[in-house]
Design goal:
Blueprint: E1 16-19, E2 22-24, H1 26-41, E3 49-52, H2 57-68, E4 73-75, H3 82-92, E5 96-99, E6 111-114, E7 135-141, E8 149-154, H4 155-168, E9 176-179, H5 188-197, E10 201-204, H6 207-211, H7 213-223, E11 227-230, H8 232-241, E12 253-257, H9 263-272, E13 276-281, E14 291-294, E15 305-306, E16 310-315, E17 328-334, E18 340-341, H10 345-351, E19 352-355, E20 359-370, E21 376-381, E22 385-388, E23 391-394, H11 395-403, E24 408-418, E25 421-430, H12 436-444, E26 455-458, H13 472-481, H14 495-508, H15 529-543, H16 560-570
Parallel strand pairs: 1-10, 3-4, 3-5, 4-7, 5-6, 9-10, 9-11, 11-12, 12-13, 25-26
Antiparallel strand pairs: 1-2, 7-8, 8-18, 13-14, 14-15, 16-17, 17-20, 19-20, 20-21, 22-23, 24-25
Helix pairs in contact: 1-2, 8-15, 14-15
Length: about 575
């Protein structure tokens, strides 16, 4: 087997990956990378390579192998709906997939490198020269036209990101970082490729440890990583289960980004950990993180200053710089800028523009301003794009998917912020009564799980502004003040069942306008994974018991009654 020379993305001798208690040494990593690189070079590669794998070290090493031989790649999540996977494959013109045997039947006629059969390439000769591509990877984000858009990230941008982040955060060899982020989220690059290229040990959480708060905290406690990267939502998920943050006692750096960091969460981290706390900001189009701030001793939130070879402009509607302290749109230039959106020239031209004729910038659509010491304060979006659990979502994409269901006339999705958490609510008008379960099932075939609204409500009409547009602000206000909001009021005379409902009251609050019974569905209450953890923790404290691991997953229960029945069994109130 020929050794593939690698000028960039070199793995130092201290790099390791730990997955499900198995440690892959530096030698193991290099062997796997060489085998995948060799297999790639035995195939004819003209387009980006698809990486279609379950969570495992190979998911990381396949990306490194592609980068080392100048082959652009795109991650595909096996949990995505077939419609989305097929769209990405066709949009990227993927003709070669790195996959595993169980997913071979899901490929659309592409050639396949099957991980279980890598040994078959050992005697084959490399027929393909290293591809000379300036693109490192393509990552798909939500699109307002109803389909996702693929962002083409340059190799040079990834290398600049590695260097820039390493200048402001200590990624020293021998340290360990725990990785909980899904591979299709751009910040996974920091926890994976960046980390092993800097000589760190990557502690890779499996799919259960990603979603189960008990398994997550146990992994952190037992493996004692030096570094963690979380979205605020994921940190809140952890905090709800471990309010004293005992699992973070040995962590020296906590990296937070992807959403606005709540001040009270920052204060909890400051009080209960000894870690340096970094707040990061950056859209996918400017390569993961563009700014970093050290908030370890700060009493207010900002997103800091740009990393190397990056500039930030705060511009008004006429693309003029605003005055000091004035609010405008955050625009970014520098080595982190992506090429654009693959096969979407008009969209690229609108988002990536020339400032004063000579500086290429990306218009983020985010509002911000300069504050003291050259730091930047993030002030939210100026359009219908939102962040939920760190994922950037175009509400219009969900609305288009909803309207694809039979008999739906019009649909509007709003994002409610309650107790520092974001919740999607879908509202719709329909010609005839529809089966909501079928409606949800149809959406699950079209959209990733994180884009499915937690609540669906039929409405007679939508409020409109004076110029005839749907008034989203009025709809959000209605949720805060009237019977559309979820409610909790007991309709049971049973003492045990009242205790169950009391827990929901304490977690979610009361509303006098509606009733809630044991038959109420959790999804109808707008409960998400973070609120679910709070409810579970409250039940464990109330009844002095522990939920089984498989019941700590958000979708383990559909109704309050199912939780009550489970508790009865666990407490031996009913025979098992």
């Amino acid at each position: 087997m020929n050794q593939v020379p690698a000028k960039d993305f070199i793995i130092p001798g201290t790099s390791e990956i730990i997955f499900e208690n198995e440690r892959l040494s530096f030698e193991d990593l290099i062997d796997c990378i060489r085998m995948i690189s060799h297999a790639l070079l035995c195939e004819k590669i003209c387009n980006p390579v698809g990486i279609f794998l379950d969570r495992s070290p190979v998911q990381i090493l396949a990306a490194v192998a592609a980068l080392q031989i100048n082959v652009p790649y795109v991650y595909l999540d096996p949990a995505y709906p077939e419609e989305r996977i097929n769209y990405i494959l066709e949009d990227c013109q993927v003709d070669l997939m790195i996959t595993e045997e169980k997913y071979c039947n899901r490929c659309l006629g592409q050639k396949m490198i099957v991980i279980e059969n890598l040994g078959d390439y050992s005697e084959k000769k490399e027929t393909n020269e290293a591809v000379s591509s300036e693109i490192g990877f393509i990552l798909y984000t939500s699109g307002s036209t109803g389909v996702p858009k693929g962002v083409e990230i340059y190799r040079k941008s990834l290398l600049n990101f590695i260097d820039g982040m390493s200048e402001v955060i200590n990624f020293s060899r021998g340290k360990a970082i725990a990785s909980f982020t899904v591979a299709t989220f751009d910040i996974f690059f920091l926890e994976s490729v960046l980390s092993i290229c800097k000589g760190l040990t990557v502690i890779l959480a499996n799919e259960h440890e990603q979603k189960n708060p008990r398994l997550m905290t146990n992994l952190i406690k037992n493996s004692k990583p030096d570094m963690l990267q979380f979205t605020p939502s994921r940190l809140l998920f952890l905090y709800k289960y471990d309010p004293d943050l005992l699992c973070l006692r040995h962590v020296s750096e906590i990296l937070v980004g992807g959403e606005k960091l709540p001040l009270n969460l920052l204060q909890e981290l400051q009080r209960k950990t000894n870690a340096k706390i970094y707040n990061m900001y950056g859209p996918t189009e400017t390569t993961i993180w563009s700014t970093v701030s050290d908030l370890t001793n700060s009493d207010h939130i900002h997103i800091g200053t740009p990393i190397k070879n990056t500039s930030i402009y705060i511009l008004d509607e006429n693309s003029k710089k605003v005055g000091a302290g004035d609010i405008g749109e955050i625009c970014i230039s520098g080595d982190g800028l992506a090429r654009g959106y693959i096969h979407k020239d008009e969209l690229t031209a609108r988002a990536f523009v020339n400032l004063n004729g000579n500086t290429r910038i990306y218009r983020t659509g985010d509002r911000g301003r300069y504050v003291e010491n050259g730091n930047i304060e993030f002030l939210g979006r100026r359009d219908h794009q939102v962040k939920v659990r760190g994922h950037r979502i175009e509400l219009e994409e969900i609305e288009i998917a909803m309207c694809s269901f039979e008999n739906i006339n019009q649909a509007v999705v709003i994002c409610l912020n309650q107790q520092e958490e974001s919740h999607l609510v879908g509202l719709y008008q329909c010609q005839k009564e529809i089966d909501e379960n079928e409606f949800i099932n149809d959406l699950q075939l079209r959209l990733p799980e994180y884009m499915i609204p937690g609540r669906m409500l039929k409405v007679l009409d939508f409020p409109h502004t004076s110029n005839g547009k749907i008034d989203r602000k009025e709809m959000i206000n209605n949720f805060k003040t009237n019977a559309i909001s979820s409610v909790i009021r007991s309709t049971s005379d049973n003492t045990f069942e009242n205790k169950i409902l009391d827990v929901f009251r304490n977690i979610m609050g009361e509303n006098k306008n509606n009733e809630l019974s044991l038959h109420s569905r959790l999804s109808d209450l707008g409960i998400d994974s973070i609120t679910f953890v709070s409810i579970i923790v409250a039940f464990e404290a109330e009844f002095d018991m522990e939920f089984e691991d498989e019941k700590l997953v958000f979708k383990a229960f559909n109704t309050i009654e199912e939780i009550a029945d489970y508790l009865k069994h666990r407490l031996s109130i009913l025979p098992v």
